[in-house]
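Weekly puzzle thread! Below is a chain. First person to post its structure in token form gets bragging rights.
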Amino acid sequence: MISYLQVHGLTRNVGDRTLFRDLSFGIAQTQKIGLIAQNGTGKSTLLNILAGKDYADEGEVVYRKDLRIGYLEQTPQYPQGMTVIEACFWHGNETTNLIREYERCMATPGNPGLQEILDLMDQRKAWDYERQSKSILSKLDITDFDKPVCQLSGGQVKRVALANVLITDPDMLILDEPTNHLDLQMIEWLEGYLSRSHVTLLMVTHDRYFLDRVCSVILELDDKTLYTYRGNYNYYLEKRQERLDVARSEVARANNLYRTELEWMRRMPQARGHKARYREEAFYELEQQAKRNLEQQQVRLEMKSTYIGSNIFEAQYVSKSFGDKVIVRDFYYNFSRYEKMGIVGANGTGKTTFIRMLLGLVQPTSGRFVVGETVRFGYFSQDGIEFDEQMKVIDAVRKTAEYVDLGGGRHLSAMQFLQHFMFSPLQQQNYIYKLSGGEKRRLYLCTVLMQNPNFLILDEPTNDLDIVTLQLLEQYLQDFHGCIIVVSHDRYFMDKVVDHLLVFRGDGVVKDFPGNYTQFREWEALEENQSKASLSYTEEKGQKEKNGQKENNDRNASRPRKMSFKEKQEFQQLEHEIEALEKEKADIESALSSGSISVDEITRLSKRLPILNDELDEKSTRWLELSELA
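Winning reply:
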């Protein structure tokens, strides 16, 4: 394989803290690599160094000559006054630069120099390239090309930057959280695009399904060291656990030997011979190994939530619109006690507006939400909160609560609660301005959970959280004794946490689905296949009718064949069978959309439905053949 990148002995310090030490690895042509690490351990710093936007204290990065790199930063920025289309072609190649000139020329009165640009577009075959670029832009819902970038939200800018790196068609992509701010359809499109592409890829993402389906190598940055796993995310989980088990065994053996050597060190006189000095040096190495920190969050945190009654909330024929844009229309829903609901849908379909109406932060156009008296909301918003950057981490949490009630007379102090969410005692004394973006999101999550709510509303909680934190949050929500609504584009997270979905389809249409996201996609695929089969059958039927008419015209004078006695019996039997099958199909479709059947029943009926359709097609075709003889 052709080597694209070699990293030798990379070390980076921030103040007195070492992010990583002596990292060495390589990336070969067409490899697709995922980088995993906890927040604050230097993932984005490493990517910035590889992209030439930051520096290392030691080591070197060697690229193959003339290699074209496309880099998506975690928080991309563009020059003031730039339009969307200019930003989409900002970091590009010769062809994209020409397309940018063409777009600028077309937007300028009089189109100065247009003919020269058109000639160059023809020579360099840039038209196909432009069509491909516009296709990428449409998939990422970028349509207002003349809008200034400064008027876009952070999520929109991230999508523009993603389009920019994909359009430039580089040899190697470096992507920092590419799925943040993408809706589910965009994520699935990008997943397919990168899987099919031969581009070399290094990316940081918390989307575990995305990692599993796109990447064939996982790099893990842990305790300042890089570990390589040659497989997808599931393979990584298995081998990582094996590595940790071996490391714990080594630490346990080192601890036993350390106790023996410590006793020897205490008993030995100060004047030691050469052999004793060698043993003393070995002791200090052993001490370092014995004190390695391999603590993992193994304990499930079961917290007591405040009492919640049977009346949670009722959406009474709620409608909401902004001008011509309809969010919901005459929506009715009665939320059940201890329900765990997910809300999904494309960007801009009104998911956040819906939960803000529930919280009373936005008023419906008509209808109302009736919230039970015992409901106590805990709201984690997309925007987060503004912390006092000069405050220490522990003080920010104590401002919310000094302790957390676990029930049964058990309590956790603010310091213990922070440790569970991976803020070490040393980190808790840090000032907030020293935290990474992901660590600030984790701190915000702690302040929400510490309030002991009985109804959690989480709007995009997975953005900027590392995988370890997501696993902790999933465990917490699975054990949570209250109600949950989650708005998220993280499919793995949704499958773990929710058992019911509201699917916002746009234009006020909301689909109620009893199951998790993967089950919904399977059901949706089944519906699409049924629709195609039905359309195909209708077209086939129409063609047969045309052919039958032609045959009838061709044999005007000939006497048509009549049904035999046996065919008449078959014809009558088919009518009864088709009627029974159609009733069974209607019953199944009604059950699947009722929202009142179990997941096992959904699975059973979903398997029966395609078999039923095949039987109907077969018997209907035979019935049509016989009906021509009637």
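Puzzle host: Confirmed. Bonus trivia for everyone else. The chain has 20 helices and 20 strands.
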